[in-house]
Amino acid sequence: MSKKWYVGMAAGRALFWGINGILSNILFERIDVSPDWLTTARLFISGIVLLIYSLLRRQNIFKIWRSPKNAGILLSFSLIGIYFAQSNFVRTLYYGNAAVATVLQYMAPALIVIFLAIFRQTWPRR
């Protein structure tokens, strides 16, 4: 794929990220949607889109469930990683604004490294 394709994808991602915050605020203010409902709806719709995409590419979507270890990793990442990150982002949109939510979202990896460094009492090697 060409460089223009990747630039377009990055621009589209930024556009949708901005639209996401605005539409979420509209849903919160005008329709009185709860953060939990919006998080669940976003993740459900995203999951359906990814499943349809995988099926169109003729990928075996049930292969991950053959290994209990892989299934456990997927479920824990889905619940702990994805759901809580999205839930916190949407709650920040609900109680604050899109700018604060974006800053907190992008600070998360650094905060995790700092937390682990304090908890383990050692700094990461790299």
Question: In summary, what is this structure?
Answer:
The protein has 126 residues and is mostly helical.
Give a topology summary.
Elements: H1 3-31, H2 35-56, H3 68-95, H4 98-120
Helix pairs in contact: 2-3, 3-4
What can you tell me about this protein's structure?
- By secondary structure, this protein is mainly alpha-helical.
- Helices cover 81% and strands 0% of the residues.
- It is built from 4 helices and no strands.
- It has helices at residues 3-31, 35-56, 68-95, 98-120.
- It is globular, with a radius of gyration of 18 Å.
- The mean pLDDT is 86.
Order of helices and strands: HHHH
Q: Regions with pLDDT < 50 over 5+ consecutive residues? A: none
Overall pLDDT level: 86
The number of distinct β-strands equals 0
Short descriptors:
81% helix; 126 residues; mainly alpha; 4 helices; globular
